[in-house]
Amino acid sequence: MLPYGRQSIDESDVEAVAEVLRGDWLTTGPAVGRFEAELAWWTGGVPCVSVTSGTAALHVAYVAAGVGAGDEVITSPLTFVATASTAALLGARVVFADVQPDTGNLDPDAAAALVTSRTRAITAVDYAGHPADYDELREVAGRCGAALVADAAHSLGSAYKDRPVGSLADLTTFSFFPTKNVTTAEGGAVAAADPAMLRRAARFRNHGLVREPAEQRHPDEGGWHQEVHAFGLNYRLPDVLCALGISQLRRLARFRERRARLVARYDTLLRDVPGLTLPAQRAYVSPCRHLYPVRIGGGRRREVYDRMRAAGIGVQVNYVPAYWHPVFEDLGYRRGLCPGAESYYAEELSLPLWPGMTDAQQDRVVETLAGILR
Fold first, then answer.
1. Distance CA 25, CA 28 (A)
2. How many angstroms separate the CA atoms of 174 and 39, rounded?
3. CA distance 321 to 337
4. How far is Cα 149 from Cα 106, in angstroms, rounded to an integer?
5. For the chain, where do the domains classified as CATH 3.40.640.10 start and end?
């Protein structure tokens, strides 16, 4: 089966991990700081806190934004459920706003229409690696005093109006799952320019521990002393995975270039295939595509999915609208809430895309898809 995405590992990655395994640190050690510094280069200097997954990153970001019981978080339903579930786990009410019909990204006007006095955060999702319209969303968030959060699980290496992802929102979350733009096997990170938000994120990912004597209530206990002022969790990303991440980040420019070439080939090879809508791109956006999402018209998406899979091509669908999941249905959310997102989902199909994909493999995808639709 040709996968829809996969990790791109070479000997430099293997050696980076092996070097840590031969050393003194496996968990929180010097590779963590080096990885966070390397990642900050890609965010335009915005400092980062590494965590164990993209889901953990969202949880940490909402804590850093002060999201809690009774608050509201506005976000897109066209995303993996973690974008919403991590806010709900903090006691917030998730408010789903519709998406733009071409990019699948959160519609700023739809978000603005749902703002209330309880809105604590507005979370955009950079669907498929295409950054959301952050200037407009910043205006919406600013008017209600909410934090602007970017779920950039798909978009590390992308830029919006010549500004890198990671510098566009108050808090940005990344995922380093194997299919993402770089991988640490499992892992994630939170970027925050505001020192107070960054400090809350760093403490929450480490049990809430306060180790600085100047900030402790009982600093004279001894050199071993540490305190918990607010509960946190163990979301620390270990050295052995950070070493892999450092090696991967040093090849991100090459990954981005290859992804762009594959996207351009898809655009050319598929442009005349009937019943197919290709992914949109704003003129002011430079995406590092994580997915290549096409739209299958005529009610044929299920047929095309089944036939592509039967031909050994691992297409995927991204995503079931978040509020369709039974956990949200049980909370009273109903289908029809965001018709634009549901329409997008009904036609969406992600074609295989990863840096190690060959032109011949891509040709096979194109020929099979075109043969089904023609």
1. 7
2. 10
3. 10
4. 12
5. 11-249
pLDDT in tens, 14-41: 999 999 999 999 899 999 999 999 999 9
Are the CB atoms for 270 and 276 separated by under 8 Å?
A: yes
Q: Report the CATH superfamily, name and number, of domain 252-373.
A: Aspartate Aminotransferase, domain 1 (3.90.1150.10)
73: helix, strand or coil: strand
How confident is the model over 288-347, as pLDDT tens digits? Answer: 999 999 999 999 999 999 999 999 999 999 999 999 999 999 999 999 999 999 999 999
Pick from 12, 5, 28, 3: which is nearest to 240 by CA?
A: 28
Q: What is each CA distance from 323 to 76, 107, 220, 314, 326, in whole angstroms? A: 10, 17, 50, 25, 8
3-state secondary structure of 110: helix
Beta bridge mates, 160: 163, 285
Alpha helices for 153-238 (secondary structure H): 195-204
The residue assigned the tokens 């090879």 is 269
- Residue 250 above 90 pLDDT? yes
- Please give the Cα distance from 105 to 67 (Å, whole number): 22
What is the CATH architecture of 11-249?
3-Layer(aba) Sandwich (3.40)
Tokens of 285: 């956006």
pTM beyond 0.70, yes or no: yes
Amino acid identity at 15: E
